[in-house]
Design goal:
Distance between the termini: 21 Å
Strand order of the largest sheet: 1-3-2
Oligomer: single chain
Number of domains: 2
Helix content: 40-55%
Radius of gyration: 18 Å
Structural class: alpha+beta
Length: 146
């Protein structure tokens, strides 16, 4: 796997969609953190997988606006929350904090195991569509002999 970080040229519709995905990720992370803290106070041992299952089965159906956004976003939000608590329990970091709007807004999205289509100046992102970049990015494929 390879990740690439670049600045995107987004139109207004794409900016809105990106902001909605970032807000969705932040909302899920904060919801999970709140539930984790309460469960821990009540004497339970929560984990990211349990939170994700509760969210998928009980909370997500109550919020119809979530159907219009990628489900991979909330899965990564809970994975990131689990990693934050893992680092906390290992003594490598402080207790996870709630995320605030406008401060390092981000989200993770992938193409469910298939490669993201890179095409020079334009790239097709899952759920977002075709976006342009300020610099060309070429896909490097390794040729294998069989």
């Amino acid at each position: 796997m390879k990740s690439i970080r670049t600045k995107l040229k987004l139109n207004n519709k794409q900016k809105t969609l990106m902001a909605r995905h970032a807000g969705y990720s932040r909302w899920c992370y904060n919801w999970g953190l709140s539930l984790w803290n309460q469960a821990y106070i009540d004497g339970y041992k929560p984990n990211a997988d349990k939170l994700r299952k509760v969210f998928t089965n009980y909370t997500k159906p109550l919020h119809p606006w979530m159907k219009n956004l990628s489900s991979r976003v909330y899965q990564y939000a809970f994975r990131n929350l689990g990693e934050a608590f893992k680092r906390f329990f290992q003594g490598l970091s402080k207790h996870p904090r709630f995320k605030k709007k406008g401060r390092s807004d981000s989200f993770t999205i992938d193409n469910s195991g298939t490669a993201i289509e890179l095409n020079g100046w334009s790239h097709k992102l899952p759920f977002i569509g075709w976006v342009k970049t300020y610099e060309p990015i070429e896909a490097t494929t390794k040729k294998q002999d069989y």
